[in-house]
Structure formats: structure tokens, C-alpha cells
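Last lecture ended with a question: if I hand you only a sequence, what can you say about the shape of the protein? Today we answer it with a concrete record. The protein is Thiamine biosynthesis protein ThiS. Below, first the input exactly as provided, then the predicted structure, then a couple of comments.
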Amino acid sequence: MTSTSVPIGVTVNGTDHEFAETLTVRELLSRLELPCQGIALAVDGAVFPKSRWDEPVGRGWQIEVLTAVQGG
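The predicted structure:
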């Protein structure tokens, strides 16, 4: 039996990653050992709301994980 699946390639914070299986955004964060609390996500330059984190990651997405920083 041969697999015809194509790896999913995404960029997270400027680093390229490939995954053999489809992952949700939440699973991607876990796999990369990134927090799911206290962050915001941008996908291809647009805010990606937490209500959509259970959707599959799209091939070629450019994801930025943003954390709040205190200061003044």
C-alpha cells in the first residue's frame, strides 16, 4: 500500500515546518510546544480568532504566534 498524502508545510514565527498528517491549529501549537493561553495568532497577516483553532491548518500558511508584553 502506498501513501499518496502530501506533507502539510507551514511557517510558524519564520520557521518552516512539515507535518505528515493534518493537524488543527490547537494540535499544531501543542506539537510545537507553544502555549494556548495568553497568545494571539495571525495567519497570513490576519488575526485568526481562538474560535477557529479547532480547524485544520492549511497548506502553506504563514502563522505568527503573538504574546502580550507589558510596558509603557
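Comments.
1. The CA atoms of residues 45 and 62 lie 8 Å apart.
2. The radius of gyration is 13 Å.
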